[in-house]
Specification:
Chondroitinase Ac, Chain A, domain 3, six-stranded mixed β-sheet, about 325 residues, mainly beta, six-stranded antiparallel β-sheet, about 40% strand, 4 helices
């Protein structure tokens, strides 16, 4: 009998461990829900009676950390500074509050009335990735998510409209015009010293630049030296240092460093020196051209210990301690 009890206890403990492990596994595998699906619902609120509408004057903007640092801005603004010239950057989020037009009071609930929907028109997918419900600011609002990257120096103007829609009464609030300009942050090239590049961004050769050779620093000891731009020129710059597993697997080289300059505008008036950090000065540098590796002739910069080579435009480079291909 004691043996049976011990067996039952052991079986119970084993089942408990299995259940606990299953619960942990299930919790880890749960997908993260989109923010718009995490908004709760409340009882219907009629648009006809309450006269709710969207108000841009009290909207908030959240910038990415990189944009805030580059432009010396707070990462989240309490209200729009210039209503006449709205400008947004990649990764921005615009939170538009909901206001009762009869009382002037903000809608303070975090949940969405079950009969409310969002109407849009004129939304450019190159500018805005989605328009959604949000409550990250403390109350229900309409969030406008701007696309994460814009691989060009030219701004995109957009004129769209937003409105609230009552699905029960089939009535809408007044349309809110959204006239804006979307583009990358712009930095002026420094004729003397080093111009720091915060990827991604636009580099502008303004009035103080007269065609001098300049040094561009992309961080992490990556430089483009002796660069010459056309006065008045604006170019898009973006360095991606993420590991390329496809290249690594293809060539069985897993100790490589990858330096991909994105965009099609990073060409210069004369060849400059691309300088990359290396663990060993006898490393090999390749340019990826149409998916194939092209070996480059490099020289060691005696002052910095970086490997350098000449290029008229910035491309995609692989640094390897051993031969590839």
């Amino acid at each position: 009998m004691k043996k049976v009890k011990r067996m039952l206890v052991s079986f119970g403990m084993a089942m408990t461990m299995m259940l606990n492990l299953s619960a942990v596994s299930y919790a880890v595998q749960l997908p993260q829900l989109p923010l718009s699906l995490m908004i709760g619902q409340t009882a219907p609120v009629s648009m006809e009676q309450s006269q709710y509408s969207l108000q841009l004057s009290q909207a908030q903007v959240k910038h990415t950390e990189a944009i805030a640092q580059l432009l010396s801005l707070p990462q989240q603004t309490e209200k729009l500074e210039d209503m006449d010239e709205l400008r947004f950057f990649p990764g921005d989020i615009l939170y538009i509050p909901i206001v009762n037009r009869l009382t002037g009071e903000l809608y303070t609930q975090k949940s969405r009335p079950s009969n409310w929907a969002i109407e849009t028109t004129g939304i450019d997918s190159q500018v805005i990735s989605q328009v959604r419900w949000a409550n990250e600011t403390g109350s229900l609002s309409v969030a406008v998510d701007f696309v994460a990257t814009l691989p060009q120096s030219k701004d995109i103007p957009m004129y769209g409209q937003l409105a609230l829609y009552d699905e029960q009464s089939r009535t809408s609030s007044d349309w809110l015009p959204l006239k804006l300009t979307f583009g990358n942050a712009v930095k002026e090239v420094q004729p003397r010293g080093i111009t720091e590049v915060s990827s991604p961004m636009n580099l502008h050769a303004g009035q103080i630049y007269q065609g001098e050779e300049v040094i561009l620093s992309f961080g992490g000891n990556v430089y483009f030296k002796d660069a010459v731009l056309q006065p008045g020129q604006t170019i898009y710059l973006d360095l991606d240092c993420n590991f390329d597993s496809q290249i690594a697997n293809r060539y069985k080289a897993f100790d490589i460093q990858c330096y991909r300059f994105n965009g099609d505008e990073d060409s210069f008036s004369q060849p400059g020196r691309v300088c990359l950090p290396v663990q060993r000065t006898d490393s090999y540098v390749y340019e990826v051209v149409n998916g194939e590796l092209k070996a480059l002739q490099t020289q060691v910069d005696e002052d910095s210990g970086l490997l350098c080579f000449y290029a008229e435009s910035l491309g995609y480079y692989i640094v390897s301690p051993s031969l590839m291909g």
